[in-house]
């Protein structure tokens, strides 16, 4: 099932935070009204138990992206190049990964530019930058070359590989 993104140019209203627990981590969605303005992973600390409906929909999609449809409003951010990279990330199928250099070749750029766009992805939990890996290893995640976020990247990739193998 697909992810449907409606890009918004303006976000007005009160800001709120929604927490979506997943794989011993938490995806924190910053909302302005119904528009997501940031989606960042957090590792460690106490995880949220009760989920508001929007967080539950996002969690359901992340747990079962091949069987769940998700409609989200995201605030349009980043350069034209970053947006091209993020669009390319959305085309990488669940359970698969692509190297920074292969993605860069498709975009006519360099792997470091792709890595920079991934690092600056404001929607890391929704636009799957974790599906981009280094030629010789997993590469970084959320601005870290190793540590808890790279461990989370491993968990996300393994979880999605399992879903793809199960045919879900």
UniProtKB/TrEMBL annotation:
Keyword entries, A-Z: DNA damage, DNA repair, Methyltransferase, Transferase
Organism: Methylomonas methanica
Molecular-function GO terms, alphabetical: methylated-DNA-[protein]-cysteine S-methyltransferase activity
Example GO biological process: methylation
Official protein name in the record: Cysteine methyltransferase
Catalysed reaction equations from the record: a 4-O-methyl-thymidine in DNA + L-cysteinyl-[protein] = a thymidine in DNA + S-methyl-L-cysteinyl-[protein]; a 6-O-methyl-2'-deoxyguanosine in DNA + L-cysteinyl-[protein] = S-methyl-L-cysteinyl-[protein] + a 2'-deoxyguanosine in DNA
Keyword Endoplasmic reticulum belongs to the record: no
Methylated-DNA-[protein]-cysteine S-methyltransferase DNA binding domain sequence ranges: 82-161
Pfam families in the cross-refs: DNA_binding_1
